[in-house]
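Q: I'm a student working through a structural biology exercise. My instructor gave each of us a protein and asked us to get a predicted structure, then write a short paragraph describing it. Mine is DUF945 family protein. I'm not confident about reading structure output yet, so if you can add a plain explanation after the C-alpha coordinates, that would really help. Here is the sequence I was given:
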Amino acid sequence: MKKTLLALTTAGAMLAVSAHAQEAQQLPELLTKENTATLSQAMKELRAAHGNERNMVKLLDAQAKFEFSPELRPKLKEIFGTERPFVTQRVPGGAKGQINYVTRLAPYLWVQGNGTDFSWAELTAKISTDKTGRGMNATAVWPSLVIARQEGSAHLQNMSMTSKQQRGADGVSYGTATFGIGSIVVRDAAVGGKDARELVRFEDMQARSESVRRGSMAEIGYRSSTKAIVFGAERVERVNLGFRLTNIPAKAMAELDQSLRAQEESQLAPEAQQALMMRQLKDFGKRLIQAGAVLNIEDISAAYRGNVAAIKGRITFQKAVETDFDSMAALVKKLVAHFEVRVPVALIKDIGRAIVSKSVPPDTPDAAKQIEAGADGLVSVVVGKAVTEGFAVVEKNELRSNIDFKDGQLTINGKVIDLSKLNFKNEPKPAQ
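A: Happy to help. First, here is the predicted structure for DUF945 family protein. I'll explain a few features afterward.
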Protein backbone atom coordinates (compact mmCIF):
# COMPACT_ATOMS: atom_id res chain seq x y z
CA MET A 1 0.00 0.00 0.00
CA LYS A 2 3.05 2.29 -0.10
CA LYS A 3 2.22 3.18 -3.67
CA THR A 4 -1.10 4.49 -2.45
CA LEU A 5 0.69 6.56 0.21
CA LEU A 6 3.10 7.90 -2.39
CA ALA A 7 0.20 8.91 -4.57
CA LEU A 8 -1.37 10.66 -1.60
CA THR A 9 1.86 12.49 -0.89
CA THR A 10 2.65 13.55 -4.44
CA ALA A 11 -0.83 13.91 -5.85
CA GLY A 12 -3.09 14.13 -2.83
CA ALA A 13 -3.20 17.89 -3.12
CA MET A 14 -4.46 17.47 -6.65
CA LEU A 15 -7.29 15.35 -5.33
CA ALA A 16 -8.07 17.81 -2.56
CA VAL A 17 -8.15 20.72 -4.98
CA SER A 18 -10.47 18.78 -7.25
CA ALA A 19 -12.51 17.26 -4.42
CA HIS A 20 -11.22 13.97 -5.87
CA ALA A 21 -11.80 13.32 -9.55
CA GLN A 22 -14.49 10.69 -8.98
CA GLU A 23 -16.31 12.72 -6.32
CA ALA A 24 -16.12 15.74 -8.60
CA GLN A 25 -18.57 14.02 -10.91
CA GLN A 26 -21.11 14.50 -8.11
CA LEU A 27 -20.11 18.17 -7.67
CA PRO A 28 -20.41 19.71 -11.14
CA GLU A 29 -20.75 23.17 -9.65
CA LEU A 30 -17.14 23.01 -8.41
CA LEU A 31 -15.32 21.56 -11.42
CA THR A 32 -15.89 21.65 -15.14
CA LYS A 33 -15.97 18.33 -17.00
CA GLU A 34 -12.78 19.33 -18.80
CA ASN A 35 -10.87 19.91 -15.57
CA THR A 36 -12.18 16.71 -14.05
CA ALA A 37 -10.92 14.83 -17.12
CA THR A 38 -7.53 16.56 -16.88
CA LEU A 39 -7.05 15.58 -13.23
CA SER A 40 -8.20 12.02 -13.90
CA GLN A 41 -5.73 11.71 -16.76
CA ALA A 42 -2.94 13.10 -14.58
CA MET A 43 -3.59 10.44 -11.96
CA LYS A 44 -3.65 7.78 -14.65
CA GLU A 45 -0.26 8.89 -15.98
CA LEU A 46 1.19 8.94 -12.45
CA ARG A 47 0.00 5.39 -11.82
CA ALA A 48 1.41 4.25 -15.16
CA ALA A 49 4.78 5.81 -14.29
CA HIS A 50 4.86 3.88 -11.00
CA GLY A 51 4.02 0.63 -12.77
CA ASN A 52 4.61 -2.50 -10.71
CA GLU A 53 7.52 -1.02 -8.80
CA ARG A 54 7.26 -1.23 -4.99
CA ASN A 55 10.77 -0.24 -3.94
CA MET A 56 10.37 3.27 -2.54
CA VAL A 57 13.80 4.45 -3.70
CA LYS A 58 13.11 3.44 -7.28
CA LEU A 59 9.60 4.85 -7.10
CA LEU A 60 10.72 8.23 -5.76
CA ASP A 61 13.65 8.45 -8.18
CA ALA A 62 11.24 7.78 -11.03
CA GLN A 63 8.91 10.40 -9.58
CA ALA A 64 11.75 12.95 -9.60
CA LYS A 65 12.27 12.41 -13.34
CA PHE A 66 8.62 12.09 -14.24
CA GLU A 67 6.94 14.52 -16.65
CA PHE A 68 3.35 14.48 -17.79
CA SER A 69 2.51 13.94 -21.46
CA PRO A 70 2.89 16.90 -23.85
CA GLU A 71 -0.88 16.93 -24.40
CA LEU A 72 -1.55 17.23 -20.66
CA ARG A 73 1.07 19.82 -19.68
CA PRO A 74 -0.69 22.98 -20.88
CA LYS A 75 -3.93 21.86 -19.24
CA LEU A 76 -2.13 21.28 -15.95
CA LYS A 77 -0.52 24.70 -16.23
CA GLU A 78 -3.97 26.28 -16.37
CA ILE A 79 -4.90 24.55 -13.13
CA PHE A 80 -1.65 24.69 -11.15
CA GLY A 81 0.31 27.46 -12.83
CA THR A 82 3.02 25.00 -13.88
CA GLU A 83 3.35 21.97 -16.15
CA ARG A 84 4.96 20.02 -13.29
CA PRO A 85 2.76 20.69 -10.27
CA PHE A 86 4.48 18.16 -7.99
CA VAL A 87 8.25 18.46 -8.12
CA THR A 88 10.11 15.67 -6.29
CA GLN A 89 13.81 15.97 -5.47
CA ARG A 90 16.39 13.94 -3.59
CA VAL A 91 17.87 16.01 -0.76
CA PRO A 92 20.92 15.43 1.46
CA GLY A 93 20.90 14.93 5.21
CA GLY A 94 19.30 12.51 7.63
CA ALA A 95 20.63 9.48 9.43
CA LYS A 96 23.18 7.12 7.91
CA GLY A 97 21.58 4.97 5.23
CA GLN A 98 18.52 7.20 5.04
CA ILE A 99 17.46 8.51 1.64
CA ASN A 100 15.42 11.70 1.66
CA TYR A 101 13.09 13.41 -0.79
CA VAL A 102 11.01 16.58 -0.86
CA THR A 103 7.87 17.12 -2.94
CA ARG A 104 6.31 20.56 -3.38
CA LEU A 105 3.16 22.07 -4.81
CA ALA A 106 3.68 25.79 -5.49
CA PRO A 107 1.14 28.35 -4.23
CA TYR A 108 -1.41 29.44 -6.81
CA LEU A 109 -4.75 31.12 -7.44
CA TRP A 110 -6.78 29.02 -9.85
CA VAL A 111 -9.57 31.06 -11.42
CA GLN A 112 -11.44 28.24 -13.08
CA GLY A 113 -13.91 30.33 -15.04
CA ASN A 114 -17.08 28.60 -13.88
CA GLY A 115 -17.64 30.67 -10.75
CA THR A 116 -15.53 28.50 -8.43
CA ASP A 117 -11.98 29.58 -7.62
CA PHE A 118 -9.29 27.74 -5.67
CA SER A 119 -6.28 29.28 -3.96
CA TRP A 120 -3.65 27.57 -1.87
CA ALA A 121 -0.37 28.12 -0.08
CA GLU A 122 2.68 25.97 -0.79
CA LEU A 123 2.32 22.30 0.09
CA THR A 124 5.53 20.60 1.21
CA ALA A 125 5.98 16.86 1.75
CA LYS A 126 9.15 15.25 3.13
CA ILE A 127 9.69 11.54 2.56
CA SER A 128 12.46 9.28 3.82
CA THR A 129 13.28 5.64 3.17
CA ASP A 130 16.35 3.38 3.12
CA LYS A 131 18.16 1.43 0.43
CA THR A 132 15.80 -1.53 0.81
CA GLY A 133 12.88 0.72 -0.09
CA ARG A 134 10.54 -1.21 2.21
CA GLY A 135 9.86 1.48 4.79
CA MET A 136 8.60 5.00 4.43
CA ASN A 137 8.32 7.95 6.79
CA ALA A 138 6.50 10.99 5.44
CA THR A 139 5.34 14.35 6.69
CA ALA A 140 3.37 16.99 4.83
CA VAL A 141 2.19 20.48 5.68
CA TRP A 142 -0.30 22.63 3.79
CA PRO A 143 -0.99 26.00 5.47
CA SER A 144 -4.08 27.02 3.53
CA LEU A 145 -6.67 26.03 0.91
CA VAL A 146 -9.61 28.25 -0.05
CA ILE A 147 -12.57 27.22 -2.21
CA ALA A 148 -14.54 30.32 -3.12
CA ARG A 149 -17.77 31.19 -4.89
CA GLN A 150 -19.83 34.36 -4.83
CA GLU A 151 -22.49 32.68 -2.70
CA GLY A 152 -20.12 30.98 -0.27
CA SER A 153 -16.62 29.84 0.58
CA ALA A 154 -14.68 27.30 2.61
CA HIS A 155 -11.27 27.99 4.12
CA LEU A 156 -9.07 25.13 5.37
CA GLN A 157 -6.04 26.08 7.47
CA ASN A 158 -2.97 24.38 8.93
CA MET A 159 -3.32 20.95 7.35
CA SER A 160 -0.75 18.29 8.16
CA MET A 161 0.00 14.61 7.68
CA THR A 162 2.52 12.14 9.11
CA SER A 163 2.91 8.53 8.07
CA LYS A 164 5.15 5.64 9.10
CA GLN A 165 4.83 2.46 7.05
CA GLN A 166 6.82 -0.77 6.74
CA ARG A 167 6.14 -3.32 4.02
CA GLY A 168 6.19 -6.91 5.21
CA ALA A 169 7.18 -10.09 3.40
CA ASP A 170 3.55 -10.58 2.30
CA GLY A 171 3.62 -7.23 0.47
CA VAL A 172 1.28 -5.44 2.89
CA SER A 173 2.44 -2.18 4.47
CA TYR A 174 1.56 -1.80 8.13
CA GLY A 175 1.97 1.34 10.18
CA THR A 176 0.30 4.55 11.27
CA ALA A 177 -0.90 7.76 9.65
CA THR A 178 -2.13 10.94 11.31
CA PHE A 179 -3.95 13.85 9.71
CA GLY A 180 -4.75 17.26 11.09
CA ILE A 181 -6.69 20.37 10.07
CA GLY A 182 -6.39 23.44 12.25
CA SER A 183 -9.75 24.80 11.16
CA ILE A 184 -12.40 24.75 8.44
CA VAL A 185 -14.51 27.88 8.16
CA VAL A 186 -17.56 27.98 5.88
CA ARG A 187 -19.04 31.39 5.04
CA ASP A 188 -22.15 32.42 3.13
CA ALA A 189 -20.30 34.79 0.80
CA ALA A 190 -17.01 35.08 -1.03
CA VAL A 191 -13.84 35.31 1.05
CA GLY A 192 -13.10 38.91 2.02
CA GLY A 193 -16.63 40.10 1.37
CA LYS A 194 -17.82 42.72 3.84
CA ASP A 195 -21.04 40.85 4.49
CA ALA A 196 -19.51 37.38 4.66
CA ARG A 197 -21.16 35.60 7.58
CA GLU A 198 -19.66 32.53 9.20
CA LEU A 199 -22.03 29.58 8.87
CA VAL A 200 -20.01 26.90 10.61
CA ARG A 201 -16.48 26.44 11.94
CA PHE A 202 -14.63 23.21 12.71
CA GLU A 203 -11.72 23.64 15.11
CA ASP A 204 -8.67 21.41 15.51
CA MET A 205 -9.62 18.25 13.61
CA GLN A 206 -7.33 15.26 14.16
CA ALA A 207 -7.43 11.71 12.80
CA ARG A 208 -5.20 8.70 13.30
CA SER A 209 -5.31 5.35 11.53
CA GLU A 210 -3.18 2.30 12.11
CA SER A 211 -2.80 -1.21 10.80
CA VAL A 212 -0.95 -3.84 12.83
CA ARG A 213 0.13 -7.41 12.09
CA ARG A 214 -0.29 -9.82 15.01
CA GLY A 215 0.93 -13.26 13.93
CA SER A 216 -1.50 -14.67 11.38
CA MET A 217 -4.01 -11.93 12.15
CA ALA A 218 -4.14 -8.18 11.68
CA GLU A 219 -6.19 -5.31 13.01
CA ILE A 220 -7.12 -1.84 11.85
CA GLY A 221 -7.80 1.08 14.15
CA TYR A 222 -9.15 4.56 13.52
CA ARG A 223 -9.72 7.52 15.81
CA SER A 224 -10.76 11.08 15.01
CA SER A 225 -11.55 14.11 17.12
CA THR A 226 -12.79 17.64 16.57
CA LYS A 227 -12.17 20.13 19.34
CA ALA A 228 -15.30 22.11 18.49
CA ILE A 229 -17.99 22.61 15.86
CA VAL A 230 -19.33 26.15 16.07
CA PHE A 231 -22.51 27.36 14.37
CA GLY A 232 -23.83 30.75 15.42
CA ALA A 233 -23.89 31.00 19.20
CA GLU A 234 -23.85 27.22 19.63
CA ARG A 235 -20.75 25.14 20.21
CA VAL A 236 -20.47 21.34 20.20
CA GLU A 237 -17.16 20.19 21.66
CA ARG A 238 -14.99 17.09 21.81
CA VAL A 239 -16.62 15.26 18.91
CA ASN A 240 -14.94 11.86 18.86
CA LEU A 241 -15.11 8.73 16.74
CA GLY A 242 -13.02 5.67 17.46
CA PHE A 243 -13.25 2.06 16.31
CA ARG A 244 -11.02 -0.99 15.94
CA LEU A 245 -11.51 -3.95 13.60
CA THR A 246 -9.82 -7.10 14.94
CA ASN A 247 -9.43 -10.75 13.90
CA ILE A 248 -8.59 -9.91 10.30
CA PRO A 249 -6.76 -12.77 8.55
CA ALA A 250 -3.42 -11.35 7.41
CA LYS A 251 -3.62 -13.58 4.34
CA ALA A 252 -6.89 -11.90 3.36
CA MET A 253 -5.24 -8.48 3.77
CA ALA A 254 -2.39 -9.54 1.49
CA GLU A 255 -4.70 -10.92 -1.18
CA LEU A 256 -6.87 -7.78 -1.07
CA ASP A 257 -3.75 -5.64 -1.44
CA GLN A 258 -2.63 -7.66 -4.45
CA SER A 259 -6.04 -7.59 -6.13
CA LEU A 260 -6.48 -3.84 -5.61
CA ARG A 261 -3.04 -3.13 -7.05
CA ALA A 262 -3.82 -5.32 -10.04
CA GLN A 263 -7.10 -3.48 -10.51
CA GLU A 264 -5.32 -0.09 -10.39
CA GLU A 265 -2.83 -1.24 -13.01
CA SER A 266 -5.47 -2.71 -15.32
CA GLN A 267 -6.59 -1.06 -18.53
CA LEU A 268 -10.27 -1.37 -17.64
CA ALA A 269 -12.63 1.57 -18.05
CA PRO A 270 -13.27 3.54 -14.82
CA GLU A 271 -16.77 2.06 -14.41
CA ALA A 272 -15.45 -1.48 -14.84
CA GLN A 273 -12.63 -0.79 -12.38
CA GLN A 274 -15.09 0.48 -9.80
CA ALA A 275 -17.33 -2.57 -10.23
CA LEU A 276 -14.33 -4.88 -9.88
CA MET A 277 -13.17 -3.06 -6.75
CA MET A 278 -16.62 -3.40 -5.16
CA ARG A 279 -16.59 -7.16 -5.83
CA GLN A 280 -13.14 -7.43 -4.27
CA LEU A 281 -14.23 -5.51 -1.17
CA LYS A 282 -17.39 -7.61 -0.82
CA ASP A 283 -15.31 -10.78 -1.02
CA PHE A 284 -12.96 -9.34 1.62
CA GLY A 285 -15.92 -8.56 3.88
CA LYS A 286 -17.21 -12.10 3.47
CA ARG A 287 -13.85 -13.50 4.53
CA LEU A 288 -13.81 -11.23 7.58
CA ILE A 289 -17.24 -12.45 8.67
CA GLN A 290 -16.21 -16.08 8.24
CA ALA A 291 -13.02 -15.45 10.23
CA GLY A 292 -14.92 -13.93 13.16
CA ALA A 293 -13.78 -10.34 12.77
CA VAL A 294 -15.01 -7.97 15.47
CA LEU A 295 -15.76 -4.27 15.06
CA ASN A 296 -15.29 -2.56 18.42
CA ILE A 297 -16.92 0.87 18.66
CA GLU A 298 -14.55 2.36 21.20
CA ASP A 299 -15.93 5.88 21.32
CA ILE A 300 -18.66 7.89 19.64
CA SER A 301 -19.19 10.98 21.76
CA ALA A 302 -19.75 14.71 21.81
CA ALA A 303 -20.09 17.40 24.48
CA TYR A 304 -22.56 20.26 24.63
CA ARG A 305 -22.12 22.86 27.35
CA GLY A 306 -19.89 20.49 29.25
CA ASN A 307 -22.17 17.44 29.17
CA VAL A 308 -21.09 14.42 27.14
CA ALA A 309 -23.32 11.97 25.27
CA ALA A 310 -21.57 8.72 24.35
CA ILE A 311 -22.02 5.38 22.60
CA LYS A 312 -19.79 2.32 22.88
CA GLY A 313 -20.38 -1.08 21.37
CA ARG A 314 -19.34 -4.20 19.56
CA ILE A 315 -20.44 -5.75 16.26
CA THR A 316 -19.64 -9.24 15.03
CA PHE A 317 -21.30 -12.28 13.42
CA GLN A 318 -22.07 -15.72 14.73
CA LYS A 319 -20.45 -18.50 12.76
CA ALA A 320 -21.60 -17.98 9.15
CA VAL A 321 -21.80 -20.75 6.58
CA GLU A 322 -21.62 -20.33 2.82
CA THR A 323 -25.40 -20.36 2.31
CA ASP A 324 -25.82 -17.40 4.70
CA PHE A 325 -24.28 -15.14 2.07
CA ASP A 326 -27.00 -16.02 -0.43
CA SER A 327 -29.65 -14.21 1.58
CA MET A 328 -29.53 -10.89 3.40
CA ALA A 329 -32.16 -12.17 5.85
CA ALA A 330 -29.99 -15.18 6.73
CA LEU A 331 -26.91 -13.02 7.15
CA VAL A 332 -28.72 -10.49 9.34
CA LYS A 333 -29.77 -13.30 11.68
CA LYS A 334 -26.09 -14.06 12.23
CA LEU A 335 -25.39 -10.45 13.21
CA VAL A 336 -24.60 -9.85 16.89
CA ALA A 337 -24.39 -6.28 18.16
CA HIS A 338 -24.33 -4.59 21.55
CA PHE A 339 -24.33 -0.85 22.24
CA GLU A 340 -24.28 1.15 25.45
CA VAL A 341 -25.83 4.61 25.23
CA ARG A 342 -25.43 7.37 27.83
CA VAL A 343 -27.03 10.81 27.61
CA PRO A 344 -26.87 13.21 30.58
CA VAL A 345 -30.27 14.60 31.58
CA ALA A 346 -28.57 18.01 31.83
CA LEU A 347 -27.63 17.76 28.15
CA ILE A 348 -31.26 17.15 27.18
CA LYS A 349 -32.22 20.21 29.21
CA ASP A 350 -29.50 22.32 27.55
CA ILE A 351 -30.79 21.30 24.13
CA GLY A 352 -34.28 22.22 25.27
CA ARG A 353 -33.10 25.67 26.31
CA ALA A 354 -31.45 26.19 22.91
CA ILE A 355 -34.60 25.13 21.04
CA VAL A 356 -37.05 27.14 23.15
CA SER A 357 -34.88 30.27 23.18
CA LYS A 358 -35.30 30.58 19.41
CA SER A 359 -39.06 30.93 19.78
CA VAL A 360 -39.03 33.37 22.73
CA PRO A 361 -38.25 37.02 21.84
CA PRO A 362 -35.30 38.20 23.95
CA ASP A 363 -37.21 41.33 25.08
CA THR A 364 -40.01 39.24 26.61
CA PRO A 365 -40.25 40.25 30.32
CA ASP A 366 -40.16 36.66 31.60
CA ALA A 367 -38.06 35.22 28.73
CA ALA A 368 -35.68 33.35 31.01
CA LYS A 369 -38.59 31.79 32.91
CA GLN A 370 -40.30 30.69 29.70
CA ILE A 371 -37.10 29.17 28.35
CA GLU A 372 -36.49 27.27 31.59
CA ALA A 373 -40.06 25.99 31.66
CA GLY A 374 -39.82 24.86 28.05
CA ALA A 375 -36.53 23.05 28.74
CA ASP A 376 -38.06 21.30 31.77
CA GLY A 377 -40.98 20.27 29.57
CA LEU A 378 -38.67 18.69 27.00
CA VAL A 379 -36.84 16.76 29.72
CA SER A 380 -40.13 15.54 31.11
CA VAL A 381 -41.32 14.33 27.71
CA VAL A 382 -38.07 12.73 26.51
CA VAL A 383 -36.89 11.20 29.76
CA GLY A 384 -40.37 10.34 30.98
CA LYS A 385 -41.37 8.59 27.78
CA ALA A 386 -38.08 6.66 27.52
CA VAL A 387 -38.28 5.45 31.13
CA THR A 388 -41.99 4.72 31.39
CA GLU A 389 -41.98 2.77 28.14
CA GLY A 390 -38.98 0.77 29.29
CA PHE A 391 -36.45 1.97 26.74
CA ALA A 392 -34.01 3.45 29.27
CA VAL A 393 -33.26 4.03 32.93
CA VAL A 394 -31.92 7.06 34.78
CA GLU A 395 -28.74 6.44 36.76
CA LYS A 396 -26.41 9.11 38.16
CA ASN A 397 -28.37 11.79 36.29
CA GLU A 398 -27.84 10.02 32.98
CA LEU A 399 -30.34 8.43 30.63
CA ARG A 400 -28.83 5.00 29.97
CA SER A 401 -29.80 2.19 27.65
CA ASN A 402 -28.39 -1.00 26.18
CA ILE A 403 -29.22 -1.90 22.59
CA ASP A 404 -28.75 -5.50 21.53
CA PHE A 405 -29.32 -7.44 18.34
CA LYS A 406 -28.98 -11.22 18.21
CA ASP A 407 -30.68 -14.08 16.37
CA GLY A 408 -32.62 -11.51 14.34
CA GLN A 409 -34.12 -9.93 17.46
CA LEU A 410 -33.65 -6.31 18.54
CA THR A 411 -33.95 -5.34 22.20
CA ILE A 412 -33.61 -1.92 23.78
CA ASN A 413 -32.97 -1.98 27.50
CA GLY A 414 -34.28 -5.56 27.49
CA LYS A 415 -37.49 -4.65 25.66
CA VAL A 416 -38.11 -6.59 22.44
CA ILE A 417 -38.75 -4.42 19.37
CA ASP A 418 -41.04 -5.77 16.65
CA LEU A 419 -39.12 -6.05 13.39
CA SER A 420 -41.82 -7.88 11.48
CA LYS A 421 -42.27 -4.99 9.09
CA LEU A 422 -38.68 -5.43 7.96
CA ASN A 423 -38.37 -8.23 5.44
CA PHE A 424 -36.07 -9.18 2.63
CA LYS A 425 -38.51 -11.12 0.44
CA ASN A 426 -37.90 -8.80 -2.49
CA GLU A 427 -34.14 -8.63 -2.15
CA PRO A 428 -32.22 -9.25 -5.39
CA LYS A 429 -30.68 -12.65 -5.88
CA PRO A 430 -26.90 -12.74 -5.55
CA ALA A 431 -24.94 -12.43 -8.78
CA GLN A 432 -23.65 -15.67 -10.14
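A: Here are two points you could use in your paragraph. The two ends are 30 Å apart (CA to CA). The longest strand covers residues 198-214. It's a good idea to check both against the output above yourself.
Q: Great, thank you!
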